[in-house]
């Protein structure tokens, strides 16, 4: 009897020890599982209603095209409608300001270089702070700028000779004060002494092209996606590209071939949210947006519109902003550009 009780006692102790060890071993797993579940629930909790993307330029403009290309696949990924709203004005700064002040956790913006880099250095009374008021999400697209002119004007070095002779009798257009197209033209003027066309800002690139076709302006820096259809039709002439050669316009030489060196600028679009955008929203967007932009189908659509797809992390966009703010700031300081 005693032997049987001893065996039972030993068996009971063994069961208790085994149970304890199993529980101890599974505690970290349970903790990890719970953490993963909480993380998943946090991410999945956003969005809870339609997402609005504000664009500060008209329909058909390059930022508008980028936003609309992103909207459909992003809507599928998020399980909510993604609505594009064009809030045109002040070189895109009106829309950027609305994004900065949005508090509904479902408002984003597609912006261009100037809204996040040069605007603070140009506008003494800018209603938002590019460095503090936004949550960077992703650099979406990039493209060189193409200097274009009416087809009636000469090309290459002869164009710049004619521009110098015309002086301030010629005009140039851009998508607004402080835009890369504006600052890029000022850089070109500094690289070609005697060239002095007057700046006329417009609400978007389609309006710039219309003005050029109508004879109101004689030149502009615009993205290849906007320029190429008019160049192929013979209505506009391509003078050259900022930077080097590009697959977006393989037959167009760089401006350096016409004698203008070190004009290395790109136009780009980026997705941002307000600084108060929830961590859940930022995490979800940081996961979905780069994946969508890098998708082969999206890349092809953007390329057809004249864009190189990028799709960076938030950190990648932050790095681009830091570098380009310094580049554009140097142009602003050198040329003494100020906007009231």
Automatic annotation (TrEMBL):
This is Tripartite tricarboxylate transporter substrate-binding protein. Belongs to the UPF0065 (bug) family. The keyword Signal applies. The lineage of its organism: Bacteria, Pseudomonadati, Pseudomonadota, Betaproteobacteria, Burkholderiales. Residues 1-23 form the signal peptide. Keywords: Signal. It comes from Polaromonas hydrogenivorans. Gene3D superfamilies: Bordetella uptake gene, domain 1 (3.40.190.150), Periplasmic binding protein-like II (3.40.190.10). It comes from the Bacteria. Pfam families: TctC. InterPro entries: BUG, Bug_dom1.
């Amino acid at each position: 009897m005693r032997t049987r009780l001893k065996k039972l006692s030993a068996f009971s102790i063994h069961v208790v020890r085994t149970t304890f060890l199993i529980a101890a071993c599974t505690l970290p797993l349970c903790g990890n599982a719970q953490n993963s579940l909480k993380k998943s629930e946090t991410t999945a909790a956003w969005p809870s209603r339609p997402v609005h993307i504000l664009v500060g330029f008209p329909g058909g403009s390059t930022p508008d095209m980028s936003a609309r290309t992103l909207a459909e696949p992003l809507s599928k990924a998020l399980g909510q409608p993604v609505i594009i709203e064009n809030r045109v004005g002040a070189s895109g700064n009106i829309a950027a300001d609305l994004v900065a002040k949005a508090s509904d956790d479902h408002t984003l913006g597609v912006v261009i270089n100037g809204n996040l880099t040069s605007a603070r250095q140009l506008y003494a009374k800018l209603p938002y702070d590019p460095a503090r008021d936004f949550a960077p999400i992703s650099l979406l697209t990039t493209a060189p700028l193409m200097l274009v002119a009416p087809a009636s004007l000469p090309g290459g070095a002869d164009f710049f000779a004619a521009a110098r002779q015309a002086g301030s009798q010629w005009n140039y257009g851009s998508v607004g004060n402080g835009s890369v197209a504006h600052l890029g033209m000022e850089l070109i003027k500094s690289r070609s002494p005697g060239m002095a066309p007057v700046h006329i800002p417009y609400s978007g690139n389609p309006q710039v092209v219309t003005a050029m076709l109508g004879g109101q302006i004689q030149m502009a820096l615009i993205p290849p996606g906007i320029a190429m259809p008019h160049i192929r039709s013979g209505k506009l002439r391509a003078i050259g590209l900022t930077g080097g050669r590009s697959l977006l316009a393989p037959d167009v030489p760089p401006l350096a071939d016409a004698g203008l060196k070190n004009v290395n600028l790109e136009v780009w679009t980026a997705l941002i949210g307000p600084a108060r955008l929830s961590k859940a929203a930022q995490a979800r967007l940081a996961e979905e947006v780069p994946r969508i932009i890098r998708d082969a189908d999206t890349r092809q659509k953007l390329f057809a519109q004249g864009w190189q797809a990028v799709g960076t992390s938030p950190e990648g966009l932050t790095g681009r902003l830091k570098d380009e703010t310094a580049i554009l700031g140097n142009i602003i300081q050198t040329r003494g550009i100020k906007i009231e």
